[in-house]
Each structure stands twice: as C-alpha cells, then as structure tokens.
Amino acid sequence: MGTRRRVVVVGGDAAGMAAAATAKRRAGDDLEIIAFERGSWTSYSACGIPYWVGGEVPSPDDLVARTPEEHRRRGIDVRMGVEVTHVDADDATVRVRDSDGVESSHGYDELILATGAEPYLPDLPGIDSAGIHTAHTLDDGQRVLDDLLESSPRHAVVVGGGYVGLEMAESFVHQGVETTLVTRSGTPMSSLDPDVGGRVHEALERDGVRVRVSSPARGFASTGGRVSAVETDDAAIPADIVVLGIGVRARSGLATAAGLEVGAGDAIVVDSRQRADPERHIWAAGDCAATHDRMSGRLVHVPLGTHANKQGVVLGRNLTGDDVEFPGVLATAITKACSTEIARTGLGEQGAADAGFDAEAVTIETTTRSGYYPGAEPMSVKLIGDRTTRRVLGAQIIGGTGAAMRIDTVAMALWSESTVDDLMFADLAYAPPFSSVWDPVQVAARALASRLVS
Amino acid sequence: MGTRRRVVVVGGDAAGMAAAATAKRRAGDDLEIIAFERGSWTSYSACGIPYWVGGEVPSPDDLVARTPEEHRRRGIDVRMGVEVTHVDADDATVRVRDSDGVESSHGYDELILATGAEPYLPDLPGIDSAGIHTAHTLDDGQRVLDDLLESSPRHAVVVGGGYVGLEMAESFVHQGVETTLVTRSGTPMSSLDPDVGGRVHEALERDGVRVRVSSPARGFASTGGRVSAVETDDAAIPADIVVLGIGVRARSGLATAAGLEVGAGDAIVVDSRQRADPERHIWAAGDCAATHDRMSGRLVHVPLGTHANKQGVVLGRNLTGDDVEFPGVLATAITKACSTEIARTGLGEQGAADAGFDAEAVTIETTTRSGYYPGAEPMSVKLIGDRTTRRVLGAQIIGGTGAAMRIDTVAMALWSESTVDDLMFADLAYAPPFSSVWDPVQVAARALASRLVS
C-alpha cells in the first residue's frame, strides 16, 4: 500500500496479458502495469489462424480474446507498436522504440518477459521469394489470405508435418487448392510413434492432401521473383503458394542479452513459480519459456496457448504475493486433419524407453460410439505403460468425430500417476451415443493390463 | 487339472456372460460352464433399446453383442428359455424349469448369480391396461415398437424422469408422437442437483417434450381395456401409449431364498472380489448386485451395463485363481435428450454435504469449442469440491454436442482423489475445434479454486 510498484510486460499476447490481468485483478491500484506489444494485436488465438485462412472463421477479430482497449479499461497501460529493444537488468530499466522510431526508457520493479516464439526459417536458396509464408501471427494469416485471393494459386505446398503443417494443409484443401505436404520425417506428426504417424499419412491422402515424407525442402524455385516450386532431393514440387510450418523457437534474445539462462532450444529457464531471475525481479511465461515434462522429468519447450495462459495466471498470482506452482506438462496435443481427429499425451513407445521406463504398448481398434449407434466411426487407441510399475505412460488416439477428446481421460490418469488397472476400472461414462460399454481407452487399458501380467 | 469344476451361471446377459467368457478363456477345459437364461437373448445392450424404439438402430440384433451360438462356440453351454427356480446352496444344486415346463436339477462347484434387475411396477389402478409398457428387455422394446406400429398413438406419456424416461421420450419424439414426461420429483433427472435438473427441464421443452414435474402418476384411465390417460393429482394426461421408467430393483429372490445378504434396496451384497458367499462358492455381479460408492463410502445399487461388464470380468478372473478387486463406482452417468447432452459424476451439492464434506460448488457457462469455431454450442459445468481438502467431489455437465464426454476428465480426477488445483492445471488437450484454451472443466476448476481460498 502506498508504494505503488511498476510492472513492465514485454509482449501482449496470451502469457503476458494473462499475467497482467491476473496481477491487476488481485492488486488493483497497488500495481502500475505497462505492457509493450510490438505488433498490432493483443491476446489472440494463434491456434485459430488455420481456421481463419481455411474460411471457417470469418475474421481475425474473432480470434482476439481481448483487445488493447479492453485491457486498458481493466487498468493495464497497453502500448501498441512499441518494441522493447534492450533490458538493463542491473538498472531495472527497459529501452523501447515506438512505431515512429522514437526511443525511451522505462524503469520497473518487476519485469515480465512474454516475448513468445518465432517460426523457424531455414537458410535455403530462394526462401525470400514472394508467395512463401509463415502462419504464426495474425499478420501472417492476413498475408496468406491476401495472397490466396490475389494469386489464385493452383498448387499449394506446406513444408512441415507438425500441427501447423497439417492444419494449414487442411485450410488449403478447404479453399479448394491442390495441396502437397512435404516433411523431413518418415511420417507426418513426428510427435507420434511412426505406426500412428503412418495412419495420419493415410488419412491425409484420403482427404486429398498429397504427402511426401522423408523429403526435406532443399530450396525454392521461382519465376519472376515468385515461388514456383519446392525442391526436394527427389523432385521439384510445383507450388504457387508455400507455407512453412517447420517449428518455432523461443524468442529469447532480450533474455540472453540480460544474462538469463536459456535451455531446451533457446527457451528461458524459469523455476516452478515462473521466476527467471528472482534477485533481479525478472519473470517469464509462455512460448518464450521452458518448462518441465512430468513424464520424462526433462526440461522442454512446448509453445502452446494452453500452457501460456496457465503460466501467465501462475506468474500473475506469484507476482502479487501468492505461492502457486506451474506443475509442468505432459505434451498433450490434439488436432484435426480434415475428417480425422488426432491426439497424443505423455510418452510415445520410443520416448518411454528413452526415459528409462520398461515400456509396453498396445493398439486397439474400436468405434467412437457403440458400434450399432448411427454415426459410429472407427478409432484406434495406442496405450503405453510400464511393465514394472504398471503406470500409464502415454497414449495416442486417431479416429473419427469424438475420438480425440478421450485423450483427456488418459492425460488426467497420467497427471495423477495412475496405473493401467486404475484406468481400466475407472467409472467412466457410458451410453450408446457416446461410447461402447467399455470406453475405448478402457478397451486399451484392459488389453495393456493383460500384457503386463508377468 | 483333471478335476473339472462345474460353474453354473444364472442369467445370460452382460455380467453373467462376461464372467463366463473370462473364466472360460483363462481356464479352458478345466471348467465346465453352464449358463441358464430364461429369456431368448444373451449379452445384449439394454441401454440401446430407446434408440431402437426411436428408429435410430434398425434391429434388435444390432444390440446383441454375442449370441447364444457364439457363446457355445467358445465352449459355454448356454441353455436358453430355462429359468432357475431354486438354489439349494447347502447341497450346491440349482433347480431349473425349461420352456416346456420340464424341471431338472444341476449340481455346481461355483454358482454365479447374474439375475439382473427388473423394472419397478407401482401398484396403481389401471396399470394392467393395454398400451402400458416398460423398456427393460429386448422383448419389451419389441412390444413398444409393435404397439407404435399397430395403434399409431397420437399422445405418448413417459412416467419417470430418469435416464430411461428421458431416452424413451426422445424415442417417441423421433417417431413423431406428441410426448409428455411426468415425474414425481421437482425436476427431471433427480440424480442431478435441482438447478441442473431445471436446465434439463428447459431443454426437454425446447425439443418438444412436455414436462410435468412434481406429478407422481396416481393411476391410468382406460377405454375398452386400453390406456387413455395417465392420472396425476392435477390432471388426466391423454395417453394412447405409456412407458414406465420409474426405476428398477435388483432381482434377488433366489439369493434371499438361499440366505444371502441383500442391501441398498434388494441388491445382493458382495465383497470387492464379487463373492456373495465365499464358503458356499456363490458369486454375484451386475444389476442384481450392490457395490460401493467411492465418494460417499456407501453401499449402493447402480444397475448399469458398464459396471456389469467390469464386475463380470473381475468375477471371472477371481473364479479362476486371480485376485482382482472391483473398486467401486462414482455414479458417473451420461445421456442425451434430443439435442442436449447431460452427464454427472461423483457427488452433487447436497449429496456432498450429506456425506460429511464441506462442500462448495460453482457453475460456469462456456462453449463446447473455441467460441469462434463453427459449431461451438453453449455448455455449462457445475463443479463441487471440498473447502477443507480442496478435493474434487463431483461434476454435472449439460450442453451441446461434445459437452458431456468431458465428464470423464472429472471422473478420472475423482478416481485418483485429485484436488481442484490438479484439475485446473492438468495438461488437457487444446485446439479450437475441440475446446477453448482453458478446457471447460478447467474453467470450472479455476472458478472453484478461487472460491476455496480462505
């Protein structure tokens, strides 16, 4: 009371603004909060970009959870188009530059780094050609949409077989463009085991996406400055428009320049309270920060909106006198490639072995509803467990409508370190429109349990 | 080995046949298994009957998981149309009567009671009129369908607001019949808290079902021997066809006659291995048996196919030398009333207080997918927790497509005795087609957690 602390937030997206909003709600006038955002949007859903590009979401405004004006009404001093160029951690000051190039300095009591991640851009010949895009920000999305409209491409190529790659391929298919997905790994979705990734490959092909695996992009051919093909070892794949989705890396330049520790790629290392440097009052959260994987115990970088939001809340609470842990991640993920739902959580078969578990896996085939109920679609569950402790280690699900959200049952089982027997006998919901009498994850748990009997 | 044991199974539906199939698979020729079923079907999904009556499932054969012939091919001697009339437990013998009235006796080494449950039929004037049905067996379902076809009813009345009542009301609406649901309790679905039940009431009315609450049926008027109205305290409700769905009770007459203990209504009391009388080698499972509620610790009777199947497997394994527990239930349940999905697990607000918890509850309103994603529908989550321990105690969910299956996340949290903080921070799946960035159950957990702060 009386001593009004100043918090400076670097980055106006999910993590930074969740932290700011949480802290402001708890501390009110005791805190002055200034948030610098170099772009023109706050608190938006980057995960929604593929659906906007695909025409399922009409406007980028729909993806904005809270506008700068809404944040200001809640007492947060949001400065748009302002880039933080330097952190002087010893002097507790940031230097910033606004969109007119005017520079200024701002002191802080607490500094929140929420600088996010940026798409990885490989140093390949021709990568600067027109028609080559990323899909990381709303501005990126607008450029892809404008390009679709202006150049009416016949052939699209998506480079990268991760979530963004799959979702952008789906977007192009929705827009009626012939689409090829090229990926370095042996199957799309290298976060899945290869057997499950192989099914994703088949599903994409069924939905009209051409897939070329084990085909890293080697460069881009162009005509008149505009991309005309993606070159791989085997072939030049015609491309009137290209989206790169080959991963992101933490944007941690300010942090490293200020002497903070980075790891797991270049992500800022924080403790479980989201403190990057407690002595110098620096915090970090979201896509720029590392976290730990609860299954492997490893430091990891998992840039996802769900973690960014939760970490922001944890940070905002701890900054205002609470003591809350961000408890780590399971690497749960879910996506939809046209008509196929895909989800994973925890460790894959190889990852489990790498982490020192005595891993066993089963894959079962079943249906999303009771087999006799209209709309029942095929689905499969791969479940991984430990032979010695019988602990559930991970799951991968692929199938029709309603398949993928079942991953949360397994995620909750992993969270509480449950055994396959716990999962097999848990009282899960059953009615024919929703499930067979043994829920699909329990069919898998039952099969796995019988394999674990010594 | 060598001494071939004989197992007699009374009842050829889920629990009995799951036990028989499990035991046979494990013990092979060491076991002779004879199953007596008084009806004409084995291993069928009673839960599917409303969807068959509603025209969504074309044939009763679709509801049969395994026919008598399929069981026989697996080495189980299934005798159809044979009723067990007496158990002489001291002599280890059952007396049976076949469909021709021929009686015989059969000795056993192990006896499995899987006699199921029967619909409760109140002793009301006119209840024997033509056109009044239950919906418990496939034969019941056939009678309702035949009656629909032959009498082309204009007005249907469903008596009872539980799952069967709601689902049968939906069936009649699907068949184009004007439908009224009458229920004794103040809201439909008395297993929900009244505030959530009130929403079910509204949803039913929106979908064209007339609902009369606090209206116990007092009798049935008839014309020429056929039902013409259901009489309540307030009114006589025109009815050309009636389905009674006012609950079931365990069919435990053979058990009580043999001196076995019953409780929780008239359900057969078993230990966690499904043994009803270990000394006399009598076992029980499924809708005829009691179990315990993991949240309240109470003995309960929860006649559901999912428990029947699991108990059957537990029984079959223990009968053949394994040692496995059926770990009890959470009273998880799910249903669909036309366009509205409904689910519950664990304790309601009042039930939590009754069980001695220091209960707090929140209800949150959100959407089934990211709000901006096409097809996002409203949903609400009521979450109950304990103020002292912060343990999650129960949840009730109502909403559009994709809402209800989220109950399994909470069920898994209850199973592992997780706190609201565990649930709030668990790494659940997020992508716009599936969820908002905070999953609906985590929105509720976050709201509840903030209420539990002292």
What form of chain A results from the Cα inertia axes? globular
Give the helix level of chain A as a range of percent.
Answer: 25-40%
Question: Do you know the CATH topology of the largest domain in chain A?
Answer: FAD/NAD(P)-binding domain
Relevant CATH superfamily of the largest domain in chain A? FAD/NAD(P)-binding domain
CATH class of the largest domain in chain A: Alpha Beta
Strand residues, percent of chain A: 25-35%
- Count of distinct structural domains of chain A: 3
Total strand segments of chain A? 28
Alpha-carbon Rg of chain A, integer? 23 Å
Number of helical elements of chain A: 12
Summed over residues and divided by their number, the pLDDT of chain A gives a mean of 96
Give the low-confidence spans of chain A: none
Biggest protein-protein interface? A-B, 66 and 67 residues
Q: What is the spatial order of strands in the main beta sheet of chain A? A: 3-2-1-7-21-20
| Main structural class of chain A | alpha/beta
Q: Which architecture name of the largest domain in chain A does CATH use?
A: 3-Layer(bba) Sandwich
Separation, N- and C-terminal Cα atoms of chain A? 64 Å
Q: What is the quaternary state of this protein?
A: homodimer
Largest sheet of chain A: 6 strands, mixed
Describe the structure.
The first copy, chain A, has 454 residues and is α/β, with parallel strands linked by helices. The first copy, chain A, has 3 domains: 5-45 and 62-116 and 249-319, FAD/NAD(P)-binding domain, CATH 3.50.50; 121-246, FAD/NAD(P)-binding domain, CATH 3.50.50.60; 339-452, FAD/NAD-linked reductase, C-terminal dimerisation domain (Enolase-like, domain 1), CATH 3.30.390.30. Helices cover 26% and strands 29% of the residues of chain A. Chain A is built from 12 helices and 28 strands. In chain A, the strands form 8 sheets. In chain A, strands 3-2-1-7-21-20 form a 6-stranded mixed beta sheet. Chain A has a 5-stranded parallel beta sheet with strand order 9-16-10-11-12. In chain A, a hairpin with a 4-residue loop joins strand 4 (83-88) and strand 5 (93-97). Chain A is globular, with a radius of gyration of 23 Å. Chain A starts with a strand and ends with a helix. The interface between A and B is large, with 66 and 67 residues. Chains A, B: Residues 6-296 form the FAD/NAD(P)-binding domain. Chains A, B: Its cofactor is FAD. Chains A, B: One of its GO terms (molecular function) is oxidoreductase activity.
